[in-house]
Design goal:
Blueprint (H helix, E strand, L loop, with lengths): L9 E3 L6 E3 L4 H5 L3 H19 L5 E5 L2 E3 L1 H8 L2 E5 L3 E3 L13 H9 L1 H10 L3 E2 H6 L5 E3 L7 H13 L4 H14 L4 H15 L3 H11 L10
Length: 222
């Protein structure tokens, strides 16, 4: 996906009705020794980092339970859409654990430090509507009879992104992600570097020409 230039947006969904991702298999985990657990969690953390580093926008379609590592997977995505009936939570402390695949870092960046601490300390689960009210998800929708309402809304969101200039979208994502980790002056410099890379693109020239000619732009990702 990282190197396929035809990919414009990635949507993560589950094929299991009622469950986005229920997290690690604790029965499997119980059979591991301490060293194996550490290795397992490190690989999981690396996976989430790889998802977060995808250059194109990513959307998690949460149509059911997203617990523990399942919510960490959703947090590694850029955008999240949830069915109102979905259940989400970093429940690790209820099992004697703490989030180990990015949850302690990505949740506070998403909802704020105080709320993230409350959710992690209590292991509380929230539904889609609560998640929307706290900014954990971008959109919440009533579940449908097929059980894929969040996926359908995620597809609609993806189709809003698709017509836009692909390289500009990628640079926008890069500027936001890198800029959030530094002070605002450094962030402005990062934005400037990303903008400079976009200036010579054919898509920028096409966007300007389409504006002048009062027609829809035809972006090619170059």
């Amino acid at each position: 996906l990282r190197f396929d230039e035809k990919v414009r947006v990635v949507v993560f969904k589950s094929e299991v009705k009622g469950v986005f991702c229920a997290g690690a298999d604790l029965k499997e985990r119980a059979k591991m020794d301490d060293a194996e657990v550490e290795h397992f969690v490190k690989r999981l953390r690396n996976l989430m980092d790889e998802i977060a580093a995808l250059p194109v926008p990513t959307i998690a379609a949460i149509d059911g339970y997203a617990l523990g590592g399942g919510l960490e997977l959703a947090l590694a995505c850029d955008l999240r859409v949830a069915a109102s009936s979905a259940k989400m939570g970093l429940i690790e402390t209820t099992r004697g654990l703490l989030p180990g695949a990015g949850g302690t870092q990505r949740l506070p960046r998403c909802v704020g430090i105080g709320l993230a601490k409350e959710l992690i300390f209590t292991g509380r689960q929230v539904d889609g509507q609560e998640a929307f009210s706290m900014g954990l998800v971008n959109h919440t929708v009533p579940q449908n009879s097929e059980g894929d309402a969040a996926y359908q809304r995620a597809l609609a969101l993806a189709k809003e992104i698709l017509p836009q200039a692909p390289f500009a979208v990628k640079m926008g994502k890069l500027a936001i992600n890198r800029g959030m980790e530094v002070d605002i002056a450094s962030g402005m410099a990062i934005e400037g570097m990303c903008y400079a890379q976009n200036i010579p693109t054919r898509d920028r020239q096409e966007g300007m020409a389409a504006f002048r000619e009062k027609r829809p732009p035809r972006f090619i990702g170059k």
